[in-house]
Amino acid sequence: MFTIACGETKKISMQKSKTWKCSVCGYIHHGNEPPEECPQCSSSSKEYSEERDKQKLKFNGEKFDILLINGSSHRAHNTGIMVNFAEEVLKKNNVNYRRFNLNELNIQHCWCCYSMRDSACTYPCRNQLDDAPALHEMIVDSRAVIVASPINWNNMSARLKDFLDRLTCLQNLYLLKKEGLTTGKVVGILVNGHEDGGMKTALDIFLYFQQMGYVLAPFGFVYRTHGAQYNAKTDDDFFKNDDILKKEVDGIVSNVIETMKQDLEANLKDKIFPVSE
Fold first, then answer.
1. Across the chain, what does the average pLDDT equal?
2. Is 232 inside any structural domain?
3. Measuring CA to CA, which residue among 25, 64, 20 is closest to residue 41?
4. Confidence tier at 9 by pLDDT (50, 70, 90)
5. Domain final position from 23, 50, 77
6. Given this model, what pLDDT does residue 15 score?
7. Phi/psi at 184 (5° precision)
8. In the predicted model, what is the mean pLDDT of residues 172-176?
9. Are residues 127 and 18 in the same domain?
10. Higher-confidence residue: 220 or 50?
11. CA distance linking residue 195 with residue 56, whole number of Å
12. Rounded CA separation 162/135 (Å)
């Protein structure tokens, strides 16, 4: 940009304002940096990303071992801390994995095609408009899944439930008398929250995977709560510095890895009778 002053042309340096989007509520902020706290949902600046043209998620077909899912609405809060601990264990053990924070993805509600007729629910999923089909491919190609969820009203997050509902196309293969693509894969479940409901949340998540033929790793649940007597604002520091949580997440991830090494998917092939709702 140029302005005229005293007959001379002077160049004025202008820094272009950036556009930031809250991954929790979608609030748009313009400025060089994101706000310290989202004015719409109170999330921290860690939940903001610079807004760019977003491409639909695609899977490149490269094999990997473990799919790590953060099912929280907050990618960088309490549940994200658990997932970070899990990543450290996977890296320490040189395990090939991929991590996804669901709040960064476009996962639409399940269309419930099955409620129209059994054969209407197919794999690949009829809804190819969002990021779920790529995750379906990764579910099929990976050997294990580790799912992390907060406790919301004694249950999993709504984001996670949408994702799990979208796995119906894989579960429905058994009902259509087709070959299952997930029998013998391994699952581990991480749960945390401010108050009670950890075991119920873990069991609700596991029921989805059980219906797809997944095997729960021994001692495959871990949950940790801070307590209703504390202000929720203190949860973050508590979980970051909680040695019990670190130890138990280490144990769960290690159990998933060791169970995965048993190659149950191959060893149980054609030996398991699918009983699925």
1. 90
2. yes
3. 25
4. very low
5. 50
6. 56
7. 90, -5
8. 93
9. no
10. 220
11. 36
12. 13
Count: domains in the chain: 2
Which range of residues forms the domain containing residue 24? 14-50
Amino acid type, 241: N
Same domain, 90 and 152: yes
In one-letter notation, the amino acid at residue 271 is K
- Looking at the structure, tell me whether residues 174 and 78 fall in a common domain: yes
Two tokens at 262?
Answer: 């048993």
pLDDT of residue 195: 84
pLDDT digit string, tens, across residues 71-98: 998 888 899 999 999 999 999 999 999 9
Rounded CA-CA distance 277/171 in Å is 9
Phi then psi for residue 187, to 5 deg, are: -130, 145
What's the CATH code of the domain at 90? 3.40.50.360
* DSSP SS3 for 132: helix
Domain presence at residue 273:
no
DSSP 180-239: PSSTT-EEEEEEEESSS-HHHHHHHHHHHHHTTT-EEEEEEEEEEE--TTS-GGGHHHHH
Residue pointed to by tokens 């995750």: 135
Indicate whether 29 and 133 sit together in one domain: no
pLDDT of 164 above 50: yes
Percent residues over pLDDT 70 in the chain: 94
